[in-house]
């Protein structure tokens, strides 16, 4: 076969037999396939995050987490009348962490859980806490709550990939048979209130009705099982789950941040079975509609401190950590289904700019909410967030090891990112999907050849990537290199010779050739400094490569053993933390927008710190001119909203430092433009709190939908 080198939008999805799990007919063939867990070993800064996790919240939760005590853990002890989503959330990330790191302690815990759930399976196929099998409400309604099972099944699939355990497929067969037999009145039901939210008031709990907005979580498991076994009943069950997903709440698909991050992708995932193009288009529609309104802030998060709220679109509105990892999980799946490089761009946006700041550097605590503009992380309950108050007993900004949902769910963040650095392709090749230092082992080509790739890079802080191939014999296979959406110059060298220079974005360079042991690929991606201007208020964000930048704010860390009542009461070993600013943050930028490169100075450190995601360890700093805005202050411990740029400031011009957004736990990244033109505005002092309270009254919480052609009364 002749050598081929060209730019492609995506690999072709072939239906022929692959080395890795592709879709069987009638499911749509995939251009990308996930490499089984263990085939990618992260190194460098990413590998170090997993090391931190082993001794951090994810790795140690069973030792101190309240949901792991015997009386609360129905996943180990099914007869215990407790246990819901917390342990499943934790276990799916924990299993990935254990398998990738091959940590003996963690693998032993994984075996205990897998063995307990398999041995505790009922004859009818149900497993897990017995009370979820037929949960009875105060109103007499009986529901089978399957949502936690939708979560924990990911770990069973990874266990099969990692060990080949022969018990897993029969175990899943029995469970899916149980799901098929659940009576209609108990299967993903609406609450008796009939509203389009979670409901559950008459039942006495909203928990059994969460599954109605998240029923699409079962689809990937059913498709995986069908691809392993060819059992068509799995596809019938997938159709049943898909048809039970609740409709959009109104003009918005969903008001809840995590609901949206999960369910916007369901149509696209289901398109594998439906073969209807509009199902993938529908996923794109919901995403674009939502982000264009609520996403006026850098790198893929949107304003929803648990829920979107009318008028709350400023970048001070924070995004839930659960939503970050759920978004990333869907980007992986949609990328494999659709093949479009933009999903990798979207994944990098969130995971490299926001997710690192959601944790303390040692991974021993995390917080619930992260915003693009957030100069103070304190234990106050008085922030302008929907879900941070004394009633809910939540301080949403302080770091705590005891966060209920995010503390369990976010554990899949770095392990799943590591698993998706490379993808297998249906033409028996490999694709570099996300760039990070790692080792990859895979089968490629048409002669059953084994190849190892060693990736050396300081990405995302620098744009150079070196790939070395090792193999026992010369092998022809296609290798795809992703050209990121931010990249304006993508140059590739093969064994020292330039072979490609491209300016196209969000595509792939296909290199199909006879590869030899020791071949080396060098990628050079030029990282230019640029700005994004937000049309809502004219503020700007400084960007460089895949990263956006924040004002460098020196941090003061304060330890707190108590930020409320249980479960937020810390210990000496597992304290809570607040982080307060030691340096000013209320700056606007003085930039020549027509000549950004000349307006800034970029300083790269020669040495990468063991933990680069900190203020002190930031591998890159950008120097820029700025002026203080004295009237820009905190209001009830929350940064005041942005006002329309440009802003006039009489303060002296200063040179300030900016660092990557993921390094900044105290962060200001959407900043006013400063000038003294006739268009410049004076910054007005913050309005009284009562004005904000009136405006933020949440119509999404109080308006009920039409039921039986009659509008319910507003609460």
TrEMBL record:
User: What InterPro entries is this protein classified in?
Assistant: Beta-AFase-like, Beta-AFase-like_GH127_cat, Beta-AFase-like_GH127_middle
Q: Name one Pfam family in it.
A: Beta-AFase-like_GH127_cat
* Start and end residues of each Non-reducing end beta-L-arabinofuranosidase-like GH127 catalytic domain: 220-409
Q: Where is the Non-reducing end beta-L-arabinofuranosidase-like GH127 middle domain?
A: 433-527
In Swiss-Prot or TrEMBL terms, this protein is called Transcriptional initiation protein Tat
Identify the species of origin.
Answer: Paenibacillus allorhizosphaerae
């Amino acid at each position: 076969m002749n050598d081929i080198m060209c730019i492609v939008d995506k690999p072709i999805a072939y239906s022929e037999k692959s080395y890795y799990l592709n879709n069987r007919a009638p499911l749509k063939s995939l251009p990308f396939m996930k490499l089984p867990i263990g085939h990618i070993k992260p190194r460098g800064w990413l590998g170090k995050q997993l090391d931190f996790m082993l001794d951090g919240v994810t790795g140690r939760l069973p030792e101190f987490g309240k949901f792991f005590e015997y009386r609360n853990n129905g996943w180990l002890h099914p007869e215990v009348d407790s246990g819901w989503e917390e342990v499943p959330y934790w276990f799916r990330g924990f299993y990935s962490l254990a398998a990738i790191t091959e940590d003996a302690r963690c693998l032993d815990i994984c075996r205990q859980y897998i063995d307990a759930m398999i041995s505790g399976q009922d004859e009818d196929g149900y497993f897990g806490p017995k009370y979820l099998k037929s949960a009875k409400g105060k109103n007499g309604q009986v529901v089978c709550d399957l949502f936690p099972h939708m979560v924990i099944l990911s770990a069973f699939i990874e266990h099969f990939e990692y060990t080949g355990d022969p018990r897993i497929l029969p175990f899943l067969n029995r469970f899916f048979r149980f799901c098929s037999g659940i009576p209609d009145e108990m299967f993903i039901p609406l609450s008796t209130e009939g509203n389009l939210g979670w409901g559950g008031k008459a039942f006495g709990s909203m928990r059994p009705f969460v599954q109605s907005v998240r029923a699409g979580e079962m689809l990937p498991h059913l498709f995986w099982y069908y691809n392993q076994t060819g059992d068509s009943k799995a596809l019938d069950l997938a159709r049943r789950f898909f048809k039970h997903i609740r409709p959009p709440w109104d003009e918005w698909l969903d008001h809840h941040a995590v609901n949206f991050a999960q369910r916007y992708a369901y149509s696209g995932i289901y398109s594998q079975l439906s073969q209807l193009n509009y199902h993938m288009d529908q996923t794109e529609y919901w995403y674009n509609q939502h982000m264009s309104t609520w996403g006026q802030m850098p790198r893929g998060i949107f304003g929803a401190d648990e829920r979107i709220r009318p008028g709350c679109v400023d970048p001070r509105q924070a995004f839930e950590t659960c939503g970050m990892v759920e978004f990333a999980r869907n980007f992986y799946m949609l990328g494999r289904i659709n093949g479009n490089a933009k999903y990798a761009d979207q994944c990098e946006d969130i995971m490299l700019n926001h997710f690192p700041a959601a944790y303390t550097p040692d991974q021993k605590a995390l917080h619930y909410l992260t915003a693009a503009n957030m100069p103070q992380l304190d234990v106050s309950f008085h922030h302008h967030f929907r879900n941070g108050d004394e009633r809910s007993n939540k301080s949403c900004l302080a770091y705590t090891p005891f966060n209920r949902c995010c503390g369990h769910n976010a554990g899949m963040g770095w392990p799943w990112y590591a698993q998706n650095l490379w993808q297998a392709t249906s033409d028996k090749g490999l694709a570099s999907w996300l760039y990070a230092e790692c080792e990859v082992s895979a089968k490629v080509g048409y002669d059953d050849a084994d190849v190892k790739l060693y990736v050396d890079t300081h990405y995302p802080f620098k744009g150079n990537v070196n790939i070395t191939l090792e193999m026992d014999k010369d092998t022809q296979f296609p290798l795809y290199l992703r050209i990121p959406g931010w990249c304006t110059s993508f140059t590739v060298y093969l064994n020292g010779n330039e072979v490609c220079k491209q300016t196209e974005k969000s595509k792939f360079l296909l290199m199909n050739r006879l590869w030899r042991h020791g071949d080396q690929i060098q990628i050079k991606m030029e990282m230019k400094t640029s700005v994004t201007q937000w049309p809502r208020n004219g503020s700007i964000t400084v960007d460089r490569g895949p990263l956006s930048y924040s004002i460098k704010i020196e941090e003061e860390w304060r330890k707190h053993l108590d930020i409320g009542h249980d479960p937020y009461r810390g210990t000496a070993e597992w304290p809570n933390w607040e982080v307060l600013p030691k340096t000013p943050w209320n700056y606007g930028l003085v930039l020549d927008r027509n000549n950004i490169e000349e307006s800034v100075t970029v300083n790269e450190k020669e040495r990468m710190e063991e933990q680069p995601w900190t203020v002190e360890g930031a591998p890159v700093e950008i120097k820029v001119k700025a002026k203080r805005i004295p009237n820009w202050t905190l209001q009830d411990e929350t940064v005041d909203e942005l006002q329309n740029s440009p802003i006039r400031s009489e303060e002296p011009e200063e040179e300030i430092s900016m660092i990557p957004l993921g390094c900044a736990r105290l962060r200001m990244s959407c900043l006013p433009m400063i000038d003294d033109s006739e268009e410049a505005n004076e910054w007005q002092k913050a309005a009284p709190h009562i004005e904000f309270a009136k405006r933020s009254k949440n119509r999404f919480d109080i308006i009920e939908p039409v039921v039986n052609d009659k509008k319910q009364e507003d609460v």
